[in-house]
Amino acid sequence: MEKHYYTVEEANALLPQIKRQIMELRKAREELALMRLALVRKQKENKDGNSDDFFKEEAQIEFSLLTARQQIDHLLTLSIEVKDIDTGLVDFLTTINGEDAYLCWRDGEAKISHWHGLTEGFAERKTLPGDPSSSAKKM
Fold first, then answer.
1. Domain residue spans in the chain?
2. Which residues form a coiled coil (predicted)?
3. What confidence tens digit (pLDDT) does each residue in 35-54 have?
């Protein structure tokens, strides 16, 4: 898989799309949790029930999980990593001072203004220096 390196401008331009995808992933996770609870409840209430119905519901849960996983995997192929769905934490591969790094964004932030090294995380993120577009370059 070829890596894609983002400038701050490129990553910021993708934020509306990323925000939508994070919202979709959150909604899918909530729906999956409700589907699982409903299935467990049905299984407890109806031990002699139609196993075909349970199989269909389990298959729907698995399909929904697969769909969400494919969405996350697609972002990974674009060198974008979803770190946390709850907080909407997302990293974009970039270079800072000639080193591979991540542009770090969290849902609720207006734009990307932080970065961290590849082996660092959110707690170690730093403010982009000066003019962000001159510090993060596309390779």
1. 8-127
2. 8-45
3. 888 888 887 877 655 667 77
